[in-house]
Amino acid sequence: MSTLFDRLKDVASPPIGLGCMNLSHGYGSPVPEPEAIRALEEAFDMGYRHFDTATLYGATANEKVVGQALAGKRDQVMLSSKCGMAIDPELGKRVIDGRPETLKRQCEASLKRLRTEHLDLYYLHRLDPQVPIEESVGALGRLVDEGKIGAIGLSEISAATLRRAVAERPIAAVQSEYSLWTRNPEIALIAACREAGTALVAFSPLGRGFLAGAVTDPAQLQENDVRQTMPRFSAENLPHNLRQLEQLQAVAKALDVTSGQLALAWLRAKGEDVIPIPGSRSIAHIHENLAAGTLDLDAATVTRLNAMLTPDQVAGGRYGAEQQADIDTEEFELEKP
Question: Any idea which fold 3-324 has?
Answer without folding.
Answer: TIM Barrel (3.20.20)
